[in-house]
């Protein structure tokens, strides 16, 4: 039987476990929306500060360096990038967030800076191509190519990047441990595009 050559359009996602020290990230540095209503599972559990990485310039620099490495190895886009917003998500026992994407950004990512166990709830990433398919047919086998929903198990210092249009959600925390993660968005800076689709962020706010 002849082997088919794989041809595909990929949503490029990357993951790496950092060797660097990220212990300076401290959720106690920030305020969070708090409530005591057990009937509310889907809550906005992110830090009120949406630029938390401004407090940790070394961590911000590290994440940007890793994004440039990800771009060089896999994404292969021209130009420069910087982090716009960043926040810490705090999931207590019995809480989760609704499935969502991120707007006004190009790429998004997460750094799992805390301690986790095998019972820590996963992050679900949904295959964007499934929105285009008109038939629902179950997979015989889930692979990184055909998955409908991909689950990532948090581990300390795991850093992931994904396109901001990918719908995702952290699943419900069923453990007594608080599940922390640091999320961030990347935007292109300087000149990008071409022709009448050109843009240059230096054109604005002079
Ligand atoms: Fe998110």
Structural write-up:
It is a single chain. The protein is mostly beta strands and 206 residues long. It has one domain (43-190): Jelly Rolls (Sandwich). 9% of the residues lie in helices and 26% in strands. It contains 1 helix and 10 strands. It has one helix spanning 57-75; strands at 14-17, 80-91, 107-112, 123-126, 149-152, 158-163, 168-170, 179-189, 191-192, 199-200. It has a 5-stranded antiparallel sheet, with helices on one face. A hairpin with a 6-residue loop joins β9 (191-192) and β10. The model has no long low-confidence stretch (mean pLDDT 93). The structure holds fe (ii) ion. Fe (ii) ion binds next to loops.
Structural key phrases:
206 residues; Jelly Rolls; binds fe (ii) ion; three-stranded antiparallel sheet; five-stranded antiparallel sheet; 1 helix; mainly beta
Structural class: mainly beta
Overall pLDDT, averaged? 93
Kindly give the count of domains.
Answer: 1
- Biggest sheet: strands, sense, closure? 5 strands, antiparallel
| Head-to-tail CA distance between termini | 63 Å
How many helices? Answer: 1
Distinct ligand kinds: fe (ii) ion
Shape: globular
Computed over alpha carbons, the radius of gyration is: 19 Å
Number of strands: 10
> In sequence order, what are the helices and strands, one letter per element?
EHEEEEEEEEE
CATH architecture: Sandwich
Proportion of helical residues: under 10%
Q: How are the strands ordered across the major sheet? A: 1-6-3-8-2
The CATH superfamily turns out to be q2cbj1_9rhob like domain
């Amino acid at each position: 039987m002849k082997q088919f050559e794989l041809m595909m359009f990929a949503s490029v996602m990357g993951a790496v476990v950092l060797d660097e020290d990220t212990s300076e990230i401290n959720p106690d540095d920030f305020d969070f929306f708090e409530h005591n209503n057990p009937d509310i599972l889907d809550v906005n559990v992110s830090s009120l500060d949406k630029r938390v990485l401004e407090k940790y310039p070394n961590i911000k620099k590290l994440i940007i360096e890793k994004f440039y490495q990800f771009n060089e190895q896999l994404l292969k886009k021209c130009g420069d990038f910087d982090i716009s917003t960043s926040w810490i998500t705090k999931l207590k026992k019995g809480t989760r967030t609704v499935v969502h994407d991120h707007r006004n950004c190009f790429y998004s990512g997460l750094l799992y800076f805390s301690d986790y166990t095998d019972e820590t709830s996963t992050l679900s990433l949904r295959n964007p191509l499934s929105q285009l398919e008109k038939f629902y047919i179950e997979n015989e086998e889930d692979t990184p190519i055909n998955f409908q929903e991909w689950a990532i198990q948090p581990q300390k210092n795991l850093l992931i990047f994904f396109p901001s249009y990918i719908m995702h959600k952290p699943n419900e925390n069923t453990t007594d441990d608080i599940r922390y993660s640091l999320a961030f968005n990347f935007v292109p800076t300087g000149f990008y595009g071409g022709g009448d689709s050109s843009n240059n962020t230096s054109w604005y706010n002079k």
